[in-house]
Amino acid sequence: MITTSSTRSLPAPRPLRLEPLTLVRHCIGRFGAEPSLYEQLRFSPFLVQMVVTRACNLRCAYCNEYSVEGREVPINQVKAQLDKVRALGALAVEFTGGEPLLHPGLIEAVRHATALDFPARMLISNAYLMNEEKILALNDAGLTELQVSVDGRHGNDVTHKVLSLVEDKLRLIARLARFRVQLSGVIGACGPEEVLAMVDVARELGFVPRILVIHDEQGQIKADHANLSVLDEAKRRMGRGFRESGGYRERLLAEQPAPFKCRAGARYLYIDEYGLVHWCS
To answer: What is the pLDDT of residue 102?
Structure first.
């Protein structure tokens, strides 16, 4: 059973992107369905993030999204949760962790989301466990988007999610994947110039680069001014791709209000490893 809670407070996920043809197909398919297309667009969640395991193969110092015991959600529970949120009219589901690739039923979960006709079926991974077999299986299961977080070029005491250790995996994904890939860099985990290297590699491989800012367990920014200075150069290299949700990052860093109202708990839901539904991640 899914119950509700609102105890966690971490940054909201990236904006949801759906291909125009996918939206058209979805809208046509909603005629005569429950909830109606009108009700879905007014009330249903756009995105549901779903934890499938808290186990992780890495131990990055700034991350609080894994646990030592690594609780794994039974695949039947994952599928039941997918059934429920799809019945609510959710447009997108994103599997997260921990490291979701450690879950033996992940491919089955993606395939089930595809069978339920979620317009977007997404995955967050550190990509360390990616290989040809897994990439092809995710293709066949119907994954539409992968987000990989890469913090810089070389490892340090803060992070192990770096290009020097995962670049071969990224190149394999670029060669084989039929799904969209977004490469995210975290400012504050490595030196500023290393975050810019991530942007360059993302563009070289045909991925979508994204810049995040390191935060604490309460969702508050931890990066210092020296690290934040890289934002201007990242903005120049990324062009229009740097701006999202009205340029909220720059406004928040300047201690201005965000240019939107948070819809957590309505348009966005987060389901943890216990089946609890939180307002935010």
So the answer is: 97
CA dist 33 and 28 (Å) reads 10
- The DSSP secondary-structure symbol of 200 reads H
pLDDT in tens, 83-122: 999 998 899 999 999 999 999 999 999 999 999 999 999 9
Partners of residue 278 on adjacent β-strands: 5, 270
Cα 178 versus chain centre, distance: 17
Residues 6+ apart with CB under 8 A from 169: 127, 128, 130
pLDDT for the residue numbered 101: 97
Q: What pTM value is reported for the model?
A: 0.81
Compute, in degrees rounded to 10, the torsion defined by CA atoms 219, 225, 228, 233: 170
**Euclidean distance between CA atoms 281 and 183, whole angstroms:** 19
Quick one: pLDDT at residue 122?
A: 97
CA dist., res. 92 & res. 278, Å (int): 16
Tokens of 152: 């810089």
Q: What angle do CA 244, 159, 132 make, to 5 degrees?
A: 80
In the three-class reduction of DSSP (H, G, I as helix; E, B as strand; rest coil), residue 268 is classed as strand
Q: Give the pLDDT of residue 220.
A: 57
Range 26-33, long-range pairs (CB < 8 A, 24+ positions): 26/91, 26/117, 26/119, 29/117
Helix (H, G, I), strand (E, B) or coil at 278: strand
Query: What residues in the chain have per-residue pLDDT under 50?
Result: 1-13, 28, 31
Angle between helices 230-238 and 192-205 (to 10 degrees): 10
Cβ pair 81, 2 in contact under 8 A? yes
Q: Which amino acid is at 142?
A: G
With CA atoms as reference, report the closest residue to 190 among 206, 212, 205, 216: 212
